[in-house]
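Project standup — Tuesday

K.O.: blocked on the structure for the chain from last sprint. Re-posting the sequence here as requested.
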Amino acid sequence: MARDKQPYEKMRNYTETEGCILITTEEEYLNGNAETKLKFKCKCGNIFEAKLGNFRNSKKQCPDCSAKQAGLKQRLTITDLHNYIKDLDNGTILLSDNYKTNNEKLLFKCRCGNIFSCSWSNFARNQNKCSICNKKPNKWSIEKLKELLNTKDGNGCELLSNTPIISYSQKLEFKCACGNIFYRKLDSFLVGDKQCYECVKKAKSSKLKADINHIREYVKKYGCTLLSNQYENNKTKLTLQCKCGNTFITHWNTIRFGKHQCNDCGMKLKSGANNVRWKGGITPLNRQLRSSKEYKHWREQVYKRDNYTCQCCGDSKGHNLESHHIENFSENEGLRFDIDNGITLCDKCHNPNQYGSFHYVYGTHNNTREQLEEYIENKKLDNCKEN
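H.V.: unblocked you, prediction finished:
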């Protein structure tokens, strides 16, 4: 529940006890609410605005007085910073000549000689922000690294750098066993390959590369025969003969990752009971036949023979053509894929949901050639009457 507003005089007396004077008039004070900003005169003479709640809690002075109270008058100087670093006695030197705020970047020189930038607040908290000295301690020296390279683990490399090793992230110059000069960070060299990038690339490719005899024996395990006699790399096309007798072309990578048969055999492995979505053969026979390769080939041949044009109305704009079985599909098994038993019709002339189409007039069962001829003839008469 909201607290009742204090009387104007009582509020004015309260502000005076805090060292301020309420300038807002009584009328503005009574008509305002909790979000209304009131005008006050600070004890220093500055005029400032504040909400009543903020004034009660903390804001009982102007921004200038608040800044002075926050301690900005006692702000550190560049001399104070130099004296602070001198007392640390850790070898760090302040290079900057100007200082304004704690978040301003200053230049320092570490005892290791590295020059780094850091804000005074971060430096005072950690005393040293040198990227080299803050890394894990280095246990390696030039002599110790050369001893390693003289063993078998050195892989025949030679260290060319003579500068002292400061950190694990320091780049060093090496000479590979093949004669190439390469640069690598100390930590990468110790845990990685101790050779140049060209030698690393050759070593990896030799492990993965297969020869023609290896590929021939590999495909033989899956009943295939390799017909190609040459192999260079993974981009080389290989000709194989499947166990079913079909020939197909593929690449070695494709064979390695599972293609051990032609496309027809591959489809058989993914269809029927071998498919993860197999539900026991619930697809109707009519749907299976109309989704088969034979049906798709028959339909394409009918379109091609009829020049992709409806034989009833002459529509040839495309994307609306359908193949129609002249003699009924379900009762004439021997004519299902006979091209002479097909004809091209458009959606308007064939779809049973379209008013006036063939199947709308004669239905979808027991259709005959006589019905089709009668429908086309009536369609032509209707077109003549319209013209």
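K.O.: great, moving the ticket to review. Residues 142-204 form one domain. The longest strand covers residues 37-41.
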